[in-house]
Specification:
The longest helix has about 35 residues. It is built from 13 helices and two strands, in the order H-H-H-H-H-H-H-H-H-H-H-H-E-E-H. It has a two-stranded antiparallel ribbon with strand order 1-2. By secondary structure, it is mainly α. Helix 12 packs antiparallel against helix 13.
Length: about 300
């Protein structure tokens, strides 16, 4: 490659690379460094303690319970959201590929609309809809005489996290629908025609052809949902505060990180060193899970 061409390529890559290094790599490396110190976030880094923050987060009797509870809530949140995305997102995308194009375009816009609404507005609207005394949804359920479903969705421990998962999926469903639609449209039409000739019904065609052919795309969605589930903060913080109420039923790693880094812990000032250790652990978990899903995604692509 000629030197002039190399410099031309470098000149295009350099701005993005510098910004990536400034805002992604440097903060991450700083977090790793902070996690090795007993540091409150104020003053110089002096008290080097090695991996004690990690041991405290993972194994200590007075804190590990909070960490593992938050971690399990993140995993539970991922399971809920990927189930809802699989049923609703994939179902809607398949439906939109079956209807006339002019209707599908209008419906795509409708499904995408919640994504342009800021999370704080979405959370505020849903908080009003779900308000137990004057909310729209409790009133609607009462009108249908479905009072057994009329529970304090955000105020009860067993329903709070699933409710936030539903709100999150509702707000971001358009993203998965927009990814699934091209994947379904890329399936050769001859495969559908051959399946119908063989007598396959719609359900058989969906599971034997559609779902199998879009498996690489589905695993990509799984990866994105997993990353999003472990980064969930805004809806939990807005709807249930930094304490992940009620009674820590919605406490996730990000709210635990927030309390430790910027609040208090066991009545004492929080520590940015311990919070950085939590962030690094969360990063490692996301990296391992994402790598596994990417391997499955590549394997599914080869098997097509």
């Amino acid at each position: 490659m000629r030197r002039r061409t190399r410099w031309f390529i470098v000149s295009f890559l350099a701005p993005a690379s510098i910004l990536y290094a400034m805002f992604i790599i440097y903060p991450f490396l700083s977090s790793v460094r902070y996690s090795l110190y007993n540091w409150t976030g104020i003053g110089p880094l002096k008290d080097f303690i090695g991996l004690k923050n990690y041991a405290y987060a993972l194994f200590s009797s007075d804190f590990a319970g909070q960490f593992w509870r938050a971690m399990l809530h993140n995993v539970y949140f991922f399971v809920l959201t990927i189930f809802l995305v699989s049923v609703c997102g994939l179902g809607i995308a398949y439906f939109l590929t079956r209807v006339k194009e002019r209707y599908a375009q209008w419906l795509e816009v409708i499904y995408f609309l919640p994504m342009v609404i800021p999370p704080i507005v979405v959370a505020y609207l849903w908080a009003m809809y779900l308000e137990p005394n004057q909310g729209t949804i409790p009133a609607f359920l009462s009108a249908l005489h479905l009072n057994f479903l009329n529970i304090p969705f955000l105020g009860e421990a067993r329903s709070a996290l699933p409710t936030i998962a539903v709100i999150t999926v509702w707000a971001t469903l358009g993203y998965s629908v927009f990814i699934f639609i091209p994947a379904i449209n890329n399936i050769p039409i001859e495969m559908f025609e051959a399946a119908r000739v063989d007598g396959a019904g719609s359900i058989r065609i969906f599971f034997s052809i559609v779902f199998r052919m879009i498996m690489p795309t589905y695993l990509t969605i799984c990866t994105l949902v997993f990353i999003s589930a472990f980064g969930i903060f805004d809806y939990v913080f807005i709807l249930e505060s930094q304490y992940g109420g009620p009674n820590y039923a919605t406490d996730v790693l990000s709210t635990l990180f927030f309390r430790i880094a910027f609040g208090t812990m066991n009545g004492q000032s929080g520590g940015l060193g311990l919070a950085s250790a939590l962030a690094v652990i969360g990063f490692v978990v996301v990296m391992i899970a994402s790598s596994i899903l990417v391997v499955f995604q590549k394997r599914a692509s080869r098997d097509l």
